[in-house]
Amino acid sequence: AAAMKQPPKITSESITVGGKTYATDTFTNVTPTILEKTTRQLHLIPSHPIAIIKDLISTSFPDFKHYDKFSPVVTTKENFDDLCFSDDHPGRAVTDTYYLNEKIMLRTHTSAHQLQAMTESDKLLVTADVYRRDEIDASHYPVFHQMEGAQLFDTKTAVEDIRKSIAADLASSGASGSINTTDTTVITPENPKQDCHDEAAMLAVADHLKHSLNMMVRRLFAHEKDLQVRWIEAQFPFTSPSWEMEILYQGKWLEVLGSGVIKQDILKNAGKPDKIGWAFGLGLERLALVLFGIPDIRLFWSQDERFLRQFEPSQIQKFKPFSKYPACIKDISFWSNENFHENNFCEIVRDVAGDIAEDVQLLDEFVHPKTKKRSVCYRINYRSMDRNVTNVEINEIQEKLREEVVKRLKVELR
Ligand code: FA5
Ligand code: MG
């Protein structure tokens, strides 16, 4: 963790992060703005909303080993291959993932540490910052935080062990009826049982997974009298069957986590072929936005005392908005080309403007009738969370953006 605090260095030949140096190549697409985020470690600041949620959730898993200091720099083997991602899985694309080089990347999920943690523990949590190239708006940010959880059981005794464990939990927690889930696990051809699994053991593991996570959200949302939760079928390369949990919040179903029965190949690779288990990965920002009433995901990264001073360790309290500084809006139009990808454009915006870029919207596009060239126009909303931005300053950023867009995307400005 201390190593992660050292400022990253980036040159055309190499990247140094967390005290280690990696050679760059044609895959390299991390930027200084992104690498800087690796030093922040919000989940390790006790009075930060991300860490508060992390601590509250972990009280629902008292005897789990909690790993929260893994480096964000992982191999493509750890992030993808070990988790049964196919070679052509879209998550591997350079448009979606930050690469230091062909084999080294910033983790896109905490599942990248599943295998290592499972070789050591049968009950584990992993909390970490994760990185994904993405669009820009109030609910998307290229860095967010996940908590992974997994629990393994002896295959032979799983059914009996789980029955006892759920009964004990229900007895000690009093009523079980205050959560509204009418869920029985149904196995469908799209969401199958693994051939190697005994059906009764698999169903018991699925029950234990849903039971454990229902208890966790019920604790977290203790103040919501009739919290609505539902489980829907999902698909992940590393679990089968798989589900997502959604909670009803202000009239909308909000996806909170992905989960499922761990692929047996992963347990074999972890040296635990005689175990069966579940895993989940949840988004801490999603829960923090809802529980603290935080309106913009960029606020988590604010260094403004008016934000940071509001929170105390282990306590959920509603965020009190402070006045927003005015926005400055600029448009940019250019002729795009076949290689153009919106995420690459957004990356340049982040790189030249940093957190001042609040929102990027495609305003207009058309194809020239004669030349067949495609023209796009993007509107960028610039606003600081911490101070007033001047028009002069934004004009400079916009000018720099225009230069970089031409240089890096090889497009023609209009
Ligand atoms: C995963 O990342 C899987 N690794 C989860 C998993 C773990 C499944 C173990 C099975 C077993 P997904 O991409 O859906 O799945 O992300 C998981 C959660 O992270 C989401 O439910 C959401 O809460 C959060 N999340 C995903 N994308 C974002 C984003 N752009 N911003 C904030 N939170 C996000
Ligand atoms: Mg998902």
TrEMBL record:
One of its GO terms (molecular function) is ATP binding. The keyword Nucleotide-binding applies. GO terms for biological process: phenylalanyl-tRNA aminoacylation. Residues 323-414 form the FDX-ACB domain. Keywords: Aminoacyl-tRNA synthetase, ATP-binding, Ligase, Mitochondrion, Nucleotide-binding, Protein biosynthesis, Transit peptide. Its EC number is 6.1.1.20. It holds the Pfam family tRNA-synt_2d. Residues 71-313 form the Aminoacyl-transfer RNA synthetases class-II family profile domain. Its main location: mitochondrion. The keyword Nucleotide-binding applies. It is found in: Mitochondrion matrix. PROSITE patterns: AA_TRNA_LIGASE_II (PS50862), FDX_ACB (PS51447). GO terms for cellular component: mitochondrial matrix. Signal peptide: none annotated. It catalyses: tRNA(Phe) + L-phenylalanine + ATP = L-phenylalanyl-tRNA(Phe) + AMP + diphosphate + H(+). NCBIfam families: pheS_mito. Belongs to the class-II aminoacyl-tRNA synthetase family. Is responsible for the charging of tRNA(Phe) with phenylalanine in mitochondrial translation. This is Phenylalanine--tRNA ligase, mitochondrial. It comes from Mortierella alpina (Oleaginous fungus). The lineage of its organism: Eukaryota, Fungi, Fungi incertae sedis, Mucoromycota, Mortierellomycotina.
